Amino acid sequence: MAKSQITLTVNGKKEEALVEPRTLLIHFLREQLNLTGPHIGCETTHCGACTIDLNGMSVKSCTMFAVQANGADIVTIEGMAAADGTLHALQEGFREMHGLQCGFCTPGMIMRAHRLLQENPSPTEEEIRFGIAGNLCRCTGYQNIVKAIQYAAAKLGGVPYREAAE
Amino acid sequence: MNVATPNPTSAERAEKLQGLGCKRKRVEDVRFTQGKGNYVDDLKLPRMLYGDFVRSPHAHARIKSIDTSKAKAVPGVLAVLTAADLKPLGLHYMPTLAGDVAAVLAEEKVLFQNQEVAFIIAEDRYIAADAAELVEVEYEALPVVIDPFKAMAPDAPVLREDIKDKTDGAHGKRKHYNHIFEWQMGDREATDLAFRKADVTIKELISYQRVHPCPLETCQAVASFDKITSELTLWGTFQAPHVIRTVASLISKIPEHKIHVIAPDIGGGFGNKVGAYPGYICAIVASIVTGRPVKWVEDRIENLSTTAFARDYHMTTEIACTKDGKVTGLRVHTLADHGAFDACADPSKWPAGFFNIVTGSYDFPVAHVAVDGVYTNKAPGGVAYRCSFRVTEAAYCIERAMDIMAQKLGMDPAEFRMKNLIRREQFPYVSALGWEYDSGDYHTALQKALDTVGYRQLRAEQKAKREAFKRGETRELMGIGVIFFTEIVGAGPSRNCDILGIAMFDSAEIRIHPTGSVIARLGTKSQGQGHETTYAQIIATEIGLAADNIAIEEGNTDTAPYGLGTYGSRSTPVSGAATAMAARKIKAKAQMIAAHLLEVHDDDLEWDIDRFRVRGNPERFKTMTELAWAAYNNVPPGMEPGLEAVSYYDPPNMTYPFGAYICVADIDADTGVTKIRRFYALDDCGTRINPMIIEGQIHGGLTEAFGIAMGQEIHYDAEGNVTTASLMDYFLPTAVETPRWETDWTTTPSPHHPIGAKGVGESPNVGGVPCFANAVNDAFAFLGSTHIQMPHDNWRTWTVANKLGLHA
Ligand code: FES
Ligand code: FES
Q: What value of ipTM does the predicted structure carry?
């Protein structure tokens, strides 16, 4: 199949590549760029394991062709920690609040939470739950994911995190 | 921390260990939060090929011909395997864990929709999928058996032609060509007598629908066969890697030492990843045929429709009781739908798992249970979905039945349970169906649960609401679900538990390096349970070296001691015990070294958190770090140097975690919309290793229970089409529907486990499902309804309200 040339920025780095027009963005990221952080849980846009940040939006990368990402600016989980290795507040929050178990949903969940906090820096529990409803987790029951996002929101907002009373 | 701390220094020392009982943050999370986990599909080997299946559109059909020529002509396709290719190798069928065989690729017939018919091997996954479309299979459709109650009809279609004349199955006589086994436990005559003498009896068909564990990562494998050394390396999503190695060796005839099975990080298992599937076998054969590594990755539809369903138990349940509410007998007949092949993942001698835990937490003097397994045109499986071998079915059955009886007696369901719970002084308690419950304090747990939620006030509120409903002032119904469950986990003692003849022990090997850091390897395999964190905590407390300096490794059959894997909540009860026992061997040797260094007798030493000190002279001591160093340069005369130990732990008994759960649901009678207002879960899992991880396990298990009770079903239409095979139709709760969980605990250690732990991962699923179901049923009970089948999605609940005349 004839390939198309695409140019895009991924985690701050310019990438040029040849892709088949039918190659899904998630396969391109995982197999051509070796970014295996975004995962595949369904390939049908339901689970959110493949969520990345694309031009300032949360995108399920199994739902797009790589060619459609031509010119795009993409951030994946691999781009979240600082260059010196310091974890992002969300990465820290997920660990502190036990917001993950098998870890398979985590990269997508963190990327979605990242965009959510850009859109709404201090969301309520309801808003968080609604905001991550496109991302499924089979292990945690979400309660600690909510806390992890609250932890990060507090940290990014410069206020101390106080666990909501049970 | 329950270590005595006479002065702050000891407390600080103990805290530094991050041992038993502390909320240690997880080691695994450092890589997982950065997208650096190593899951099977992340693996990329040079010259790797991809495999994909051609699957049957029919539930039951004869294969008249298979034409692979067009598929083979696609550029990039290396080969197409069919049963004809596997048959000469004896690989077109594979043995199941339940003593049956299952087709790898269908030979003459297909027996369920999406059954594997051919396997494409191609340069990339897109080409493989293209080629799969081009394989032409001619089918002759046959009549199907979907309803298990019709499987044994005299004129039912013959499903398994390969065994239709076999009158003996793996578990005794077969009554019909679609019958698999009959299994009975208990005293039938005594039970019949109890029913004849009973003041009150109930009888109800309680069905637990077919569901699927649906971990977020599907099943997948990479096989790489080296033609020069004749060695096979198999990476895969395996909950039980050693068992996979043994099975692979038995069926491929490759010697076991030439097979290297590696289970890397696993994205959830919940029982889905215990068995062996055609994809694994085909990937292995494909690698042998092509001499290149072959990856097989299931998609979500394949996962939901072919690998490992759970439940599908139809339980006709009867309780006998005195009029003042004392149970006198239990009788259960279960019809078990096993699908096309008996591929249940149970210990070999237990075709219905531990279903005989069905007497639950109650003191039934007599009981009898019989289970008939049948074949139907559905996917094979019958795995323990977050469950210890049919205990979820048993708990659902008894907890529903107890409510139905309480309703008939006009007694409060909590009071009825209180009256019949096994009393503390009865432990160890031998149940009417043969189990010896290790320990329990049931009344204390249930009372704590009732007090915490304010049960009496809730019932008063419900009463007022019902009155208001009758007066037409509200359209909302309130239901309160109360359950008390007892689990049976930690399979299991070699006297009654094996898989394919291998006793269900488990293992741990611990090595202390000279600097006092540690590596421990185990026969289990975490799929999210956090083993790298918790096993290190057990070792830290046992031998006084900091958990942060203890590496835990699992999942590599070359390095880990043989173990039976992680499922049935067996890791803590079995491998956790092995870990403590291995650590104790190390500690015993360290004590001798300490005595040698301090020039005292072994008995003059006492253990103090992280050191041995001289009794009565605490200033003289040797820390474990010092002893680790000494083990490599200054051991007592005649002692071998080094400090390591291995333990294969054969548990003397199962462990019996228990709990009391309470759920409050509000249901809109006009829409069926059901809101879970409150869910309280009290668990007693014995000694608590890491409360943070326990709480996480309970949240997760409750959420899976919520999914099952409130919406999950693998459904087949009359033609055998599976109608719920994508995440569009199969309910997985999102953060929006999922209730908020309240957790609580009591602690009743297991008397026979080295650290008193019982296991917890599955309890919330076992207790959760009946608790939701009881809440929904309770909402309608005052209208005369006794039992509503799961799942309780809004549509079904609306239908119930409609049938009860609430929409007139
Ligand atoms: S893999 Fe993209 S949403 Fe599931
Ligand atoms: S942590 Fe396993 S799916 Fe979310």
A: 0.97
